[in-house]
Amino acid sequence: MKVIQKVGVLGAGQMGAGIAYVCAAAGYRVALVDKDQESLTKGHEKIQGFSVQYAPANACDQSQKDILGRIEFSLDVNALISSQMVIEAIPENEDLKIEILKHIGTLIGADVPICTNTSALSVTRLSKHVSYPERFMGLHFMNPVPLMPLVELVQSFSTCEDAAHLVSAFVASLGKTAVECADTPGFIVNRLLIPMINEAIYIFAEGAAPVEDIDEAMRLGTNHPMGPLELADLIGLDTCLAIMRRLYEGFSDSKYRPCPLLVQYVDAGRLGRKSKKGFYDY
Ligand code: NAD
After folding, report:
1. Which CATH class is domain 189-274?
2. In this structure, are strands 177-181 and 114-116 parallel, antiparallel, or unpaired?
3. Whether residue 223 lies in the annotated active site
């Protein structure tokens, strides 16, 4: 495995933009690739926002410019080629991820780790589609990436020790704390978090309490910084649904059935903050 100088990030959405920002802030050069110009522009705006919101108190304008200057924004997946580490952060859709992982595997050297930021898909199943699956693993950042200190590290059945050590050292170099988890649906955080969100949606759907009260109850009653429904809007309702479905199928257990209202919201394109409408209007 090579020394990491440049990180390739695929997908400039909320996670990809955050990952690109923290990598550049840690001194890495970054290639941030998206499939369309509008998403790339939005990713650029998000990163500018991060550099205002999350800059250390003593950061000067120049150091923030330097961070942005280390990020190359591209519509061309070939921009990943000279990276020594690639992180995939495209939507939580297995077919889409398989297609792109197959392609990336052919572009970069066998000694370059490829990581997926999947929230809940099987890392082992995805690894079968990457050439040299031993360098593939899950690297699950939390949202918003610049703020959240945790990253879950998930090895597939094929991940080799060299790749796992390199990725673990890389996470430490970003100033994040890694927790290892086996390749089980939802890993640790989402297996606990998303069923709670789903249950909150049931409470609302049953008419038991309005959205604002459910959120306030959890903020004031359990000291959560955000209520479950505002958090669902932040995560993206499509992502929440994909994770619930993965838990439901992965464990073959009806306790993980997605709330029908969540399915309807996603079908209606009501995805939370990213579509400006979810449980709240934005
Ligand atoms: P998002 O919808 O905000 O962004 C995905 C981006 O990928 C979009 O900009 C889209 O244009 C781009 N994209 C789609 N297909 C592409 C392709 N073939 N090549 C290049 N770019 C492509 O999604 P997100 O919330 O950033 O989630 C990304 C991944 O991170 C998902 O696997 C999700 O489960 C995971 N994740 C999400 C959260 C969260 O809170 N949203 C937290 C942890 C992990």
Report:
1. mainly alpha
2. unpaired
3. no
